[in-house]
Amino acid sequence: MAAPENRIFKAVVIGVSTGGVMALKQILTALPADFPIPILVVTHITPTADDGLAQLLNSQCSIRVKEADEEELLAPATVYLAPANYHLLVERRGILVLSVDPPVNFARPSVDVLFESAAEAFGHSLIGIILTGAGHDGSRGLLQIRQAGGLVIVQDPADAEMDSMPRKALELLVPDYLVSLAELPALLCRLTHTTHQVNVI
Amino acid sequence: MREYWKNGWGTMTASELIDLEIKLLMEGIFQVYGYDFREYAEASLRRRMTQWLSGSSFATLSEAQSRLLREPALFENLLRGITVNVSEMFRDPSFFKVLRERVIPHLKTYPFVRIWHAGCSTGEEAYSMAILLREEGMQGRYRIYATDIDAEVIRRAQEGIYPLQELQRFTRNYQQAGGKASFADYYTARYNRAIIDPSLRENLVFATHNLAVDADFGEMHLILCRNVMIYFNPSLKEKVLNLLHSSLTPGGFLCLGAKESLNYRQLASCYNEISPRTQVYRRSYGCP
Fold first, then answer.
1. Handedness of CA B4, B5, B6, B10 (dihedral sign)
2. In chain B, what residues touch A90 (CB-CB under 8 Å)?
3. Which of A17, A110, A139, A164 is catalytic?
């Protein structure tokens, strides 16, 4: 396999739970408006939430942030948040699919469900990231991303507001990168050959 | 020779092979049993198929196929896995509030109304509707048709028995939806189960119906098809929307799930959303 910096990635998937709003804010505000590939995010939110979080992040970030719509075609420079009370999946042609299948790991949306479908859809062209959170959602999915040849990144548990999700992921694999939130935007830009934007907020 | 194999045959990834196996099996199932899953959305179908497979004794879907095509009982087991749907009473309380405040007043202007829950699963939504209509004084003036592809699910819907631990959520939903009574009036608790008040089943007809292959239901005033078409690919969605459209009376209402919309659909011009983001669409009078 080529060095990470020389690989071509088609999408980023992020799984986050407790502490997610602050973590996403820190990462997404530091990404440039022309970030070249789509970013798909599952964060555990209450089932009756509306798209307020997407709107909030969109108003604070240069990169476009929106709630994922059913049957939406992935576009570059866009962050898609899984809607409350739906699983988010992605198909090989880059089309988003929602489902109301039962919760997985007590969660809907579930990180594992997104990661598993993205690993199948994008194989080695995928970057998977596990951030702060309670529980263990996402660790199995991250392993599937690794097994499909994708690149895996885990937030350093010492840096995480809740270290359980990163720790559970580290029990299953050794990530390609173990980073702090502050390091993550620059790493993503390096991996996708974009210029890192200095966080001004 | 090895190079030849590598570049010519045998180069499919494990994931591509699973997609192929699903495709072949769905074709077989359609020809043998008449159930058509060939136009289901790939990602969610694959997830359900691999889950079913991991709970079975088969190593691959190819291995399972031989018996699935010969043993109806095994196929029914798979069918349950593919079409499993979870529901709750008054799911999306704000939607039921819109029904109560914006749709039922229109329905009251008819002497008798017909309502169709297309893809009713185990009946939670249909019973919620019966409660709503009773509280709005429409008793004796409606008939609800609730259909699902799976006969076993319909049997459970008819029973109207739900795990007691679900009732807490149902009650909260009911209250948020603007419920006018005490939700406890609508069920009897026995051990760890709740039985829905049998009188709610009057004028409520449960039946099997397959949206992908069966014919339309005539002259409905209100159709609910929420979070059903999200499992279909675009061409099947268009087909099913046409079926719903031809079952809906002009001026009638079509309700979709919270993340579904008629935008970009061929029939979009025949419908107006009663207000943004309600996913409640009214059929225009001028549309064929």
1. positive
2. 43
3. A17
Asked whether residue A5 is assigned to any structural domain, the reply reads no
- Do B24 and B68 form a contact (C-beta atoms < 8 A)? no
Strand B280-283 and strand A177-179: pairing?
unpaired
When pLDDT is cut at 50, 70 and 90, the band that residue B9 belongs to is: low
Query: Which of A71, A91, A100 has its CB closest to that of B42?
Result: A91
* In the block, residue with structure tokens 């209402």: B253
User: The CATH number of B93-283 is which of 3.30.950.10, 3.40.50.150, 3.40.50.1860, 3.40.50.300?
Assistant: 3.40.50.150
Asked if B276 has any chain A CB less than 8 Å from its own CB, the reply is no
Nearest alpha carbon to residue B47 among A15, A108, A50: A108
The answer to whether B183 and B171 are in contact (CB under 8 A) is: yes
Task: Average the pLDDT over A80-93 and give the result.
Answer: 95
A201 — pLDDT class (breaks 50, 70, 90): very low
Q: What is the DSSP string of A136-177?
A: -TTHHHHHHHHHTT-EEEEE-GGG-SS-HHHHHHHHH---SE
Q: Please say whether the dihedral angle defined by the alpha carbons of residues B276, B278, B283 and B287, taken in this order, is positive or negative.
A: positive
Q: Could you give the CA distance from residue B232 to residue A151 in angstroms, rounded to a whole number?
A: 31
Q: Does residue A17 carry a catalytic annotation? A: yes
Residue spans of beta strands (DSSP E) within chain B? 113-118, 142-148, 161-163, 187-190, 193-196, 204-208, 220-225, 248-256, 271-273, 280-283
Cα separation, B251 vs B72, in Å, equals 42
Q: Which amino acid is at A122?
A: F
